[in-house]
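Q: Entry one of two.
A:
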Amino acid sequence: MEKQMESANITDNLLNVFNYSFVETAPYSFFVPKKDKYTAVNLVDKIYHCLHCQETVTVKYHHTGVTYFSKERFDKQKTIYEDLQLTFPTAAEIEAEQEFTYHVRGFCPKCAKKELAAATEPEQAIYNYCFALHKKDENLLVTARTCMGEAVKKWLSGITDSAQLTQYDLSTYEALRDLICSTILADTAALSELLSEYRRELEETLMAAEAMFGELPEKWATYTARPTAVYESMSDELYHEYTIVFPEKTTKPQDFFIFRTIAKDRVRMFLQQPRIATLEQLLLETGFEACWVDWLVDHVMALKK
């Protein structure tokens, strides 16, 4: 029974492939940055600028020394600084490691829902399908965990006398966990309904996305969500310790939508990834919550008072 509730890997794989397809798409490579291709910058933070509401979001970086920008990424910063009417540091100031702020324009989460969610052009619409599917993949486990917790609470509410527990082995943590697992497995109606709804929405999304592939080139630019709390490479082609920066651990996670290039083969890869299809897989992916054992122990102690 214990093995039946151990965590599996489908959801982790989906997250990794989503990030590879839409978030940090540059592959890892070991290299020494050369001056003709990279610029060393004392990068300390990043400011996201919303094109619609003009609101800004600042992300502080964990500072460990200079970060290497690819020439293309660095030149784009010059253009953005000019558009924002900001003074771009001189070459001497950059070389002297004056603090540098990285600026990005796009849409905040609130404005993205207004400006991007209803897009009909295939370049944006197919990404919207992928992003919505990504959220469904994540929310499936959150909701499943809630359903499993409710099954445990329902079972506990039916135990009103400690004599009802004498038939069970309560001597070890493992025994308590097995008991709770069997309780959940005996009440899976809500989980089955949840999974059916997820699979129905999944099939609808996949069909709608697949219908758009014929209209798309091998690569195209569109607005995609960039999580503010994840690492980023300052090179679009490769990433390495020289080019990568990490937000401070206190960074509030939110999705800011930026204009970037994505590839058809990676979009298709994400859509075609194996997803949870059976109740057994859903249970394995959701895993076991230690607090359920605490609920049982607390309930037993309360009955003995």
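Q: Entry two of two.
A:
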Amino acid sequence: MKALKIPIACDADKQFVRPTKAEKGRPYFCPACLCKVVFRSGTQKQPHFAHRASTSCSVETVIHKAAKSLIVQEVTKWKAGPTPAPIVRRKCGLCGCPMPHSLPDKVEGAVVEHRLPDGFIADVALLSGGVAIAVVEVRVHHAIEEEKATRLSVPFIEVEGKAIIESSASWTPIVDGFKPLVCQPCRKALKERGAPEPGTDDLAWFSAKVATIAERTGITLPAHPYVYAPFNCWKCHEEILVFLWPRRDQLWSRAQPPDPIPKTVRLRRTTVVKERYWANICPCCGSTQGDNYILLEPESPFWLDEEWPEPEHWDREAILHAIAGRVADLAREKARAISLQEQQRQEIGTPKHLTIPGAASVRRSNLRPRLM
């Protein structure tokens, strides 16, 4: 077995020492198994600590254990003062611009290997009043398990172990499960578009938006089995509600809508379609909103990945949940495009009335919601 090269060691006082700060002739020890290691450096070698071959210790184990201890050490030094708080290098949840910030003062301490109420063991738990309010997971080779990531009872970030060893006072999440941050340009764009911030309850936002449109347009929201979504009329551009209902192997325009029928769903005949058919009607200008316009536009709230279910598999709540996520994502993407374009204008000094070639536009991929 070959000797191990480890990136950090402890001195006789159990303080962490990086190879760049080590001195030849001094005793150093492995942070994981505490066996003695040898500091080596030279003109043709990068400084490192040599660890004898071991079946019970590995470079991965050393990095994982040392990184966890370094995080706790940084928090402890900060709370003891006057060391600055560790910096978490996060990004805007909408446009992705850097948003580094200090750990909040409510963090009172940190501990390693802390058992949470849900039964999971946190690599590092950030405490307030003795209770874990956030978790820092350390990755060396393997990412946090999917079950743990989805079921953790507190917010978490995952950081790279090697990065922590290089700079323990600066944490760059490779997975960010904290409450999303939103930069000022994006916050302004979201407000202008009436779009929800990242991390918002999309269904609650959607329901409130639908209720507002229904009240403004004098529409009574129908019960099961109808589903609905906000849509801009192709003619007057007012935001209205459009409705869909279960149908079997046919267009909605050919399927009889169930009673009670919304007052904006009517039998219509147009110059294009010579026969009468069921269509959504704009309550503001009376124009017909055709199936193709409602269903096939890339920015349609009904543009789903799956085929629409048959009547016997029609799950209204699941469909509305998917539509709500789709509508919220579309609103956020439009706000993101506005924000990025405004940031680009500010960088290059372009007047607002001019369009920037290649400026950010709404990303249409990955916006189609899933029913399940």
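A: Comment on entry two: The CA atoms of residues 181 and 226 lie 36 Å apart. DSSP finds seven helices and 19 strands in the chain.
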